[in-house]
Amino acid sequence: MARNTQVAADHDAPPITQILARFVATHPARGWSDAVEHEAQRTFLNWVGCATGAATHEAMQAALAGVSMLQPAPQATILGRAEKVDMAGAALLNGISSHTFDFDDTHLKTIIHPAGPVASAALALAEHLGASGRALIDAMVLGIDVACRMGNVMYPEHYDRGWHITGSTGMLGAAAACARLLGLDEQRTAMALGIAASQPVGLREQFGTMTKPFHPGAAARAGLLSALLARHGFTASARALEAPRGFAQVVSTKCAWHEATDELGQRFEISFNTYKPFACGIVIHPSIDACVQLREQGVKADDVERIELKVHSLVLELTGKKEPADGLAAKFSVYHGCAAGLLFGRAGEPEYADAIVTRADVVALRRKVVASVDDAIDEASADVTAVLRDGRRIHVFVEHAIGSLQRPMSDAALQAKFTTQAEPVLGAARTAALIAGCRRLGAMADVRELAALARP
To answer: How far is residue 140's CA from residue 143's CA, in Å, rounded to a whole number?
Structure first.
């Protein structure tokens, strides 16, 4: 999560749009290492679990009601629900549900949640086409590479300006993935990227509301539509990403062009994907981890006078809500995260239920958290001290939280996370079958088999 601020001059911009289009259109199927393939499977599994788990959330109910008014044809599955809608609607809805719990994957270098927009668009189109699982994985890996590489080009200046980078780069990744599934040539893939470049979505002001998960859904829908338009000859600028009035230079003051092309086809950004053990903003995770460790050392909430928290300024900028009124807002409250970690020893979706967020003992402990900024501490770290009523001070410093690249979740932990989200929606037997389906996705002749397993 280092914050490089190097800016390239306009005239240094290489033909990024064409380079990425050629890469997406021509890179060989499964043209990467076993480690990359394994991470792709982990990413897909995590995304399916997150999307399925939120299938009945009120945000999804509202979104589905809106989409249904368009009277779409039933082309694609909504994970975790019996209904089917049109491709664009499925891309939107699965993107919303996969990000509703804020429990999805994270590319830590950019804080992009790449599977939300990319996998949502790709699965919807793949199901409609009857594409193979191999084709879906290939599309997802390449689409995530495009989204995250463009994020690398612009982060952090683009994010600091107020863009929700998952949405504002996700439409590019979704367009790339769908172009690959459609078999578009280099020129039409470039047009898909160009069309998508005019559709960035997502403002950080929306964090803590239903509109935050709308961003990856809207990006998925925009990317899918871009590829469909390009397939039929719709045109765009061939320099839409890099031109002086193109995407990157309009939305960011940083344009590190080399980040889009360095080791292209050799280094895949999905290799740097991480998965959340806590259902909230990623910058809260070190603080929660520290409070869980305090609990494991015997610290009890009733014995706490105060919790002294030192974090990077970005943590309080993003998650400084002291009195969240509901679960969605609490996902952006480091104060609630600390209280949940100490009280429950975990911070999954149940700990972000509205009833928990407003519970008296949770509120009382939350108000004992005293947070201060120390920019000498990395964004990925937290310094936490529990000051007890008897005068003792118990200190924990977390350099890298559980779930980070340095302390990744195991395959078993990822499967357990999937199970806790999907079982309430699908039941135990169906959940086990869906996990098995995700595991053998690469060998699946038709992804409709997987989609059928994801419907209750």
So the answer is: 5
Structure pTM?
0.91
How far is residue 341's CA from residue 285's CA, in Å, rounded to a whole number? 10
Report whether 305 contacts 368 (CB < 8 A). Answer: yes
Whether residues 136 and 269 share a domain: the answer is: yes
**Host H or E run for residue 273:** strand 273-274
Q: Say if residues 377 and 309 touch (Cβ distance below 8 Å).
A: no
- Please report whether residue 364 resides in a domain: yes
Given the structure tokens 């979104």, which residue do they identify?
63
Beta partners for 394? 386
pLDDT at 70 over 90: no
Tell me the three state secondary structure of residue 30. coil
Look at residue 414 and tell me whether its pLDDT is greater than 90. Answer: yes
Separate counts of helices (H) and strands (E) for the chain: 21, 8
Give the residue from 346, 366, 369 showing the smallest Cα distance to 357. Answer: 366
Domain assignment of residue 251, yes or no: yes
Structure confidence by residue, pLDDT tens digits, 3-31: 544 444 455 789 999 999 999 999 999 99
Q: Are residues 391 and 447 in the same domain?
A: no
User: Are 141 and 149 in contact, with CB atoms under 8 Å apart?
Assistant: no
pLDDT of residue 317: 94
Domain that holds residue 235: 10-277+425-453
Q: Given a cut of 70, is residue 259 above it in pLDDT?
A: yes
Q: How many domains does the chain have?
A: 2
